[in-house]
Amino acid sequence: MNIIPLSVLDLGIASSLVLLLAALSWKMNLGVQNQLLIAAIRTAVQLTLIGFVLKLLFEELDPLWLIPIAILMLLAAGREVIARQDKRLAGGFMVGTSAMFVSSFAITVLALLVVVQPAPWYQPQYAIPLLGMMLGNTMTGIAVGMERLLKTVHDEKDTIEQRLMLGEGPKDALRNPMRDASRAGMIPIINAMAAAGIVSLPGMMTGQILAGSPPMEAVKYQILIMFMVSAGTGFGTLIALKLTAIKLFDERSRLRLDRLY
Amino acid sequence: MANLLSVHNLRLPTGQLISLHLAKGEIHSLNGPSGVGKTRLLRALADLDKVEGQVRLHHQSIGNFTAMDWRRKVMLVPTDSRWWLNTAAEHMAKDMSAEAELLKLSPDRLSAPVTRLSTGEKARCALLRALSYEPQVLLLDEPTSGLDPASALTVETTIAHFAKKRAVLWVTHDELQAERVADHRWQLSAETLIRVH
Fold this sequence. Notes:
The complex is a heterodimer.
Chain A: H1 8-27, H2 33-59, H3 66-83, H4 92-116, H5 124-155, H6 157-165, H7 170-173, H8 175-195, H9 203-210, H10 215-248
Chain B: E1 3-11, E2 17-23, E3 27-31, H1 38-45, E4 52-57, E5 60-61, H2 67-73, E6 74-77, H3 97-102, H4 107-110, H5 119-132, E7 137-141, H6 149-162, E8 167-171, H7 175-181, E9 184-188, E10 193-195
Parallel strand pairs in B: 3-8, 3-9, 6-7, 7-8
Antiparallel strand pairs in B: 1-2, 1-4, 4-5, 9-10
């Protein structure tokens, strides 16, 4: 494979574009320049660190190290889900994290065991990037879905309670907010699949091609990832919303907005 | 008359200890200053808020009913109605055209989009919606607020008609209305609930 190595200068040129955008934001009083710069710095630092970790893991460490790294990734994703909520649910960290755990881990393991089949199946070079892709996308779906559900329930409290007053159960009373939230969580990944290859070349495939992989191999991996990510995001979002809905009502089917903060 | 709904030592979130009994065929009015806990009491009776105390329907404790079953039998009609389907009729458990006419509401209003109904029409539709489920106890939270005097009188007559088969607890700020409609009148203060008539 012909890899053209990137120098620090190359990355510096790319970063100058982000600096330019931050300057424009400052000039136009948009107020996003700090967030933009912090996010850019986080990208550089976090990716560099994970680069070192992966290098170590692939070349020197026992594959057992996969376990704490996977747990760390999961907890970080759980924290991100909560950080993105305007209205937060008591116990929401557990809801988001367990939904991500079930969907991301199950589908990653399935992909490793049945589809990719590296030897051994948990080989970090495959397991970590696949899990990372899964968690990253599932996290977004869950965060968007939960955010939408909690906001709608907060805003539509009277409607939900009036449905309860007519003797409807939580499932019926929450039908519309649940449908909206499920769609909100899943639409981005559905759009991404629909636009893949026509409007956009997905990041992973682009990366592989830039790194010298044959295009057809990159495409096959990309399709695999797209399907996995869609399933993971969809199942994860539905699980998280179901768990959230359970927590929004008590044993007498009363709407418990006091559990939001 | 046999008690339909019995409330014993119910502690409201606002602090008062409530005991009252509603019999079939009776209308009870409930008055009191704003914020004193009238709506809280109705919500507690409809099992929408968790409170301490005993509530019984036909001598059966609230715990013997599922929450959904209880709310269909002890139904709260709030002041501001909300709608989630296109027409009022779609929200109702059965055809309410005949009852609509009692409320001087043309039956075609029930099949008009809810967004085109006036405040007064929505208030009457909300009452019809509740009645369509045939509750045994009606908890009304200012059902005539926002209605003109003539419509308010129509609503009063209609509720009196439907109260023959059920018990009604009616929150109103209107003393004259309470005198017109209620068999028994209650006053909720910051300290307690007292029967004034």
